[in-house]
TrEMBL record, chains A, B:
This is 2,5-dioxovalerate dehydrogenase. Residues 25-472 form the Aldehyde dehydrogenase domain. The keyword Metal-binding does not apply. The lineage of its organism: Bacteria, Bacillati, Actinomycetota, Actinomycetes, Mycobacteriales. The keyword Oxidoreductase applies. Its EC number is 1.2.1.26. GO terms for molecular function: 2,5-dioxovalerate dehydrogenase (NADP+) activity. Keywords: Oxidoreductase.
Length: 530, 530
C-alpha cells in the first residue's frame, strides 16, 4: 500500500492549483510505528513560494469573497466529497505518518468532512452575515436619522498552520481552513512536517474542488516549511490578513509577536497550551473513586495523550476517596502499554517533560516501557497544593500521557488552586448531587479560567457543534474571544461594515430591502426573519 | 458660574468611591476661548493609585459580573439620570474646558445618556448572552453527544482612555465605559487632561449611581495621569483584561504594544487615525458641484475639524465639475472663521500638520486668521493622484480643519487611489443615479478599507444605533472586528464559555431549560425564543 501511494504522491507543494517543487530542506513522512521514513521526499518552500501563494490569494480574494453563501456551501461540500473519494488512500497514509490507530484516523476523516458540512449549513442558515438594519427616521429632531445597515465581510487571505496531532481535523482541510473558506477568505496552509503525504492528498482534494467549483486557483495553496522561517514569512506578508494556528506555546507566541510587529497588525488565533484541570469533588470520589481513576487513565493515554484537551491535572481534597482514586489510577497507568508518538521530536519532548516533573513532584507510577524511542511511556505524578501553588513550572504542559495529581487540604485550598491556574481550554468537575453546593462555588472560578466547563466526563473529545467553545484565556489561546471548533469559528475571519444611505441598487442581498435571502436580521434592534 | 463650579469641584481622583488627591504633576482645565486656566488644580496619580483601583476592580468583578441584565440596565439608567441631574453645571464646565459651543456640548450630553440607555436596552433584549444549546443525543453512534450550551461572560476589569475631542461621549461615561459596564466589566477611566473638571463631575455621577445601585465600589474608578506613565501602568496591570482607547495613532499603538508584551496579552480597542476619504463621482459633481463644495467645508470646519470622521481627503476625476466644487470650497474655506481648538497642544500639532502639507501639496486656500495661538485656521490643499500615490506622508492625519483634494485623471486612477488608502473609519461617495455603475465598482474596494461607507452625506456625525460601525482596518483602529459606537460595542468585552453536561441546577438563566429570561437562543443551530 505504501509503495503504491508513493507512486501517487509527488512530494510537491500546491500553489494556486499548480504543483511546485520546493528548493529548501528535504523532509519525509515518518512511520513511528515502523520506525521508518516514508516516500516520497518533500522539500520546504522559500520566500518566493510564499510570495507567489500570497499574491494568488490576494488576487483571488475579490472574486472569492463575492461568491454567495450557497456557492461557498457547495464548495465546502465538494471538498468533503473529494476527501471521501480518496478515503482509503488517505487513511492508510495518515495512519502510517501518525502512528495513530486506523479507527481513530477513520473517525477523524469523518470529523473533517463533518466540519466542512457544518460550515456549509452555517452558510445556508445565514446568520453569519450579522445583518442589521436601522431604518431612516427622516422626521427625527433635531437631526434626521439616515438609513444605516450592517453586514459582515471576509477579512482577506488567511494563513493556516497545521497541527501535528490531528493530521486531518486540525490540518490542511481542518477547522481553521473550513471556517476561513466559509467566511470568504482564501487560505494558504503551512503543512506540518509530521504528515506531508496526508497533507498532499488533502490539498489535492481541495484543489480539485476549487477547480470543480469554478473558483480562482489562488483560493487555496499548500506550502511546506518551518514555522520559524516560511511560517514567519507567511504571517508577515502584507497580503495575509489573519492567522489560524494549533500547536505549541512557543510557536504560537512567536507568530503572535510577528503579527503584532507588522506595519499593519493582524489577528492571530493560536490554540497553544492547556493542562485541562479535573476537579474531583468529595461525593464523586466517595461514590465512584476507583471507576474515576480507571476512566481518567483511559482519557489520559488515549492517542498517546497527544490531545490539546488531555487531562494533565487532577485536583481533589485529600482523604480515603482520593486514595482509592489514586490506587485505581496507579494500577491502570502501570498497565498502560507504551504507544508510538507522532514524531521522534514529540517523543523526545515528552520524555524531557516527564524528566522535569520527576524532579518536582512525587512519582505515582509509570506505564509500560518500550525499547522504541518514538514510544511514549505514560507517567502519573502527585504533589500537594502548597507546592503546586508555589511553582509555576508544575503548570507547564507536558504533551503526552503525563498527569499530575494535586492533593488539597480542604475545599478552600481547592478553590485557591483553581484561582492560581493559567488559562485553559477546558475545566472538568466530577460531582454527585451531594456536591452541588461545592460545585456551585467552583463554577464561577472555572468560568474565568477555561473556554469549556464539563461535568462528569473527560475533556478529550471535542464535539463539533454550534455551542462548542474550543478556546479559552491565554495561554490556552491567544484570543479568548473566539473558538477554533464549532460554528462560531467562522466569526474569527469576519468584520462588520456599516452602509449608510447606500443606494438600494448597490446593497448586498444580506441587507437588501425585502430580505431576498430570508435571513434572520436585526431590524431597528429586533430580530426578525421578515 | 465658573467660580461656583470651582467651589464644587475638589480636584481629586475617585478610586472605588473614595476621593483621592494625586501626588503627581499639577494640571488644570484650560478655557481655549478665554485663553485662561481654570480652577481647581488637579494632580496626576501614581502607580499606587493604579494598583488600588485595579485591586478594587478585581475585587468587584465577581459580584458585578454576577448581576442580572436587568440590574445592570437599571445601573446604566441611574448613571444617565445622575448625569442629567447635574446637566447645567456639567455643560458649563465642558464648554469652558473644550471651547466647544454650548449647543454642541448639550447635544453631546444627550448622546452620552442616550448611549447609556441604548445599552440598557441591549441588556434587556438579551441577545448579548449569545445563548446556544445543542441538546444531548444519547443514542448517536458511534458516540453519544453530550448536552452542550454556550453563553458569553465578561472579560474582567477594563481600562478606558478618554478622548480629548468628545469630553462626554468618548470620555468618562462614554461609549467604552457604557459598553464595558453593560458587559459586566468594572471600569477604570484614565481622564484626559483636556477636561479634568468635566471628568470629575461625570465620575461623581457614576460613583453615586454605583452606590444607589448597591454595587461594589470598585466597579468604577477615575484616575488622572499621562498615557506614557499612568496609562502604561494601567494597561500592564495583570488585573486589567481589556482596554478601550480613543486618541492618536502614537498613543494607541503604544498601548497596543504594551498590552501585547504582557505575560498575559489582552485585547486593546484603540480608535486612532482616519482621514475619511470622500469620492465625488462625475454625475454628482456635474449636478451639484458648488453645493458639495460648500457642504464639504461645513463638515470640515465643524467643531474646528476635531472629529475622528473629519473629511480629510477628497478624491475626484479632474474636469469642470471638480473645478466648480473647488471654487465653492475655496470661497467657503476662505470665509471660515478661526475657531478655538481643544487645547494649545492640539492647536500646535494642527499648525505643524498644516505646515507639513504646505510643503507637499498645493495650497487652495486658508480660512480666516486669528491672533490666538489656540485657534485653528482652516486649510485646503490640492494634489494629483500620481503624487498622492507616491507619498505615504500625504495620508497622515492632520487633526483639525485641514483637507486635501486629490485630482485623478480618470476612474481607473480613482480606483487606484482607493486601493492605495490605509484603513479608515469611513469612506464617502457622492453619486447620482447616472453614477451607479461607477459607484458599484468602487464599493467593493471601499468595503476593504473602511468600517462605514456612506453615500451622499458627510462622515461627521456618528449615529448611535444597532447597525453602526465606528471602526475599520488599521490604522483606523487596532481591531477591525469590532465597533466602538453602537450596540455591538458590548461584544468587545465578552467571551464565550461552553457548558458540557453541567447539572441543570447550576446552569445560568441564559442557558437554562425553559428559557426563563425569554431570550433569543440558538437551539440545535436554529434561532428560537421558546
Amino acid at each position: 500500500m505504501t509503495a503504491m501511494l508513493a507512486n501517487q504522491l509527488t512530494g510537491q507543494m500546491i500553489i494556486a492549483g499548480s504543483p511546485v517543487t520546493g528548493s529548501g530542506a528535504e523532509i519525509r513522512g515518518f512511520d513511528p510505528a515502523a520506525g521508518a521514513a516514508l516516500e516520497p521526499v518533500y522539500r520546504h518552500g522559500d520566500s518566493t513560494d510564499v510570495q507567489t501563494a500570497a499574491a494568488a490569494a490576494a488576487a483571488a480574494f475579490p472574486t472569492y469573497r463575492a461568491t454567495t453563501s450557497e456557492q461557498r456551501a457547495q464548495f465546502l461540500e465538494a471538498i468533503a466529497t473529494r476527501i471521501e473519494a480518496v478515503g482509503e488512500t488517505l487513511i492508510a497514509r495518515a495512519v502510517a505518518e501518525s502512528g495513530l490507530p486506523q479507527a481513530r484516523i477513520t473517525g477523524e476523516v469523518g470529523r473533517t468532512t463533518g466540519q466542512l458540512r457544518l460550515f456549509a449549513g452555517v452558510l445556508r442558515e445565514g446568520s453569519w452575515n450579522g445583518a442589521r438594519i436601522d431604518t431612516a427616521l427622516p422626521d427625527r429632531a433635531p437631526l434626521p436619522r439616515p438609513d444605516i445597515r450592517q453586514r459582515n465581510i471576509a477579512l482577506g487571505p488567511v494563513a493556516v498552520f497545521s497541527a501535528s496531532n490531528f493530521p486531518l481535523a486540525f490540518s490542511v482541510a481542518g477547522g481553521d481552513t473550513a471556517s476561513a473558506l466559509a467566511a470568504g477568505c482564501p487560505v494558504i496552509v503551512k503543512a506540518h512536517d509530521a504528515h506531508p503525504g496526508t497533507s498532499e492528498i488533502v490539498a489535492r482534494a481541495i484543489t480539485a474542488a476549487v477547480a470543480d467549483s469554478g473558483l480562482p486557483a489562488g483560493t487555496f495553496s499548500l506550502l511546506y516549511g518551518t514555522g520559524e522561517q516560511l511560517g514567519i514569512q507567511l504571517v508577515t506578508d502584507p497580503r495575509i490578513k489573519a492567522v489560524g494556528f494549533t500547536g505549541s506555546r512557543t510557536g504560537g507566541t512567536a507568530l503572535v509577536a510577528a503579527a503584532a510587529a507588522r506595519p499593519e497588525p493582524i489577528p492571530v488565533y493560536a490554540e497553544m497550551s492547556s493542562i485541562n484541570p479535573v476537579f474531583l469533588l468529595d461525593g464523586a470520589l466517595q461514590s465512584r473513586g476507583p471507576e474515576l481513576g480507571k476512566a481518567f487513565i483511559g482519557s489520559l493515554t488515549m492517542g498517546s495523550g497527544q490531545f490539546c484537551t488531555n487531562p494533565g491535572l487532577i485536583i481533589a481534597v485529600d482523604g480515603p476517596g482520593l486514595d482509592a482514586f489514586v490506587d485505581a489510577a496507579r494500577e491502570a497507568v502501570s498497565a498502560a502499554p507504551a504507544a508510538p508518538m507522532l514524531t521522534p521530536h514529540i517523543a523526545r519532548n515528552y520524555a524531557n517533560g516527564v524528566e522535569s516533573l520527576s524532579g518536582a513532584a512525587e512519582l505515582v507510577a509509570r506505564g509500560e516501557r518500550s525499547s522504541s524511542e518514538t514510544c511514549g511511556q505514560a507517567a502519573l505524578f502527585s504533589t500537594d497544593a502548597d507546592r503546586f501553588l508555589a511553582s509555576q513550572d508544575l503548570q507547564a504542559e507536558v504533551f503526552g500521557s503525563s498527569s499530575l495529581i494535586v492533593r488539597c487540604a480542604d475545599a478552600d485550598q481547592m478553590a485557591a488552586v483553581a484561582q492560581g491556574l493559567e488559562g485553559q481550554l477546558t475545566a472538568t468537575v466530577h460531582a454527585e448531587d451531594t456536591d452541588l453546593e461545592a460545585a456551585g462555588r467552583l463554577l464561577p472560578l472555572l468560568e474565568l479560567k477555561a473556554g469549556r466547563i464539563l461535568f462528569n466526563g473527560w475533556p478529550t473529545g471535542v464535539e463539533v457543534c454550534h455551542a462548542m467553545v474550543h478556546g479559552g484565556p491565554f495561554p490556552a489561546t491567544s484570543d479568548s474571544r473566539t473558538t477554533s471548533v464549532g460554528a462560531r469559528a467562522i466569526e474569527r475571519f469576519l468584520r462588520p461594515v456599516a452602509y449608510q444611505g447606500v443606494p438600494k441598487a448597490l446593497l448586498p442581498n444580506a441587507i437588501a430591502d425585502g430580505n431576498p435571502d430570508g435571513l434572520w436580521r436585526r431590524v431597528d434592534g429586533q430580530l426578525t426573519q421578515s
